[in-house]
Write a structure and sequence with these properties.
The chain contains 3 helices and 10 strands; from the N terminus they run H-E-E-E-E-E-H-E-E-E-H-E-E. It is mainly β and 195 residues long. A hairpin with a 2-residue loop joins strand 6 and strand 7. The longest helix is centred in the first third of the chain and has 8 residues.
Amino acid sequence: MSGIPEHPEMWAFLTSLAPGATLSGTVAVIEPFGVFVALDDGPSHPLFPGVGFITYPELSWQSFDEATEVVQVGQRVTCEFLQFDTWNLEARLSLRAMQPDPFQGFADRVVVGQELRGEVTKVVPFGAFVQVDGIEGIEGIEGFVHQEHLVAGPEEAMSDVVRVGEEMTVVVTEVDRTRRRLSLAQQQDPSDDSR
């Protein structure tokens, strides 16, 4: 896409930005595919409601169902510039980059073999996601218990083994800082002789 002749001001602004720069603006529109931000210092976009754009994964470190759980139209935001999207002529932004990553703080405080309590948040055919109880003020960390690490065993259907909302004791089996993944295994309750 050659937007230089048509939008020289836009190209000049976007090419002047360096990754890691801090940009502020106002949330203009929330769409199912991301959030448009009208930047304070940027020109208006010829097609979109803002020259800044935040994809859903870049909104927050915490999981959410709707973007409105994180931002509202009209809200002031300060974001980190990630890259210049030359196809759409927009500044790709990250709101979550402006906050410390809670997973890294969590990883600093847990060790493999540590026992934690948690609540099942989602059941899939090959295992269950468990949100572990907060550690020293860090909340919302989810880990995954693979089917083979559930007490009932791999031959049973997941819906028969575990349910959303169920509390369980788990043991940390791996903490992958790079991928931000927490692997867990269900710990059998010593008072439960039924399994």
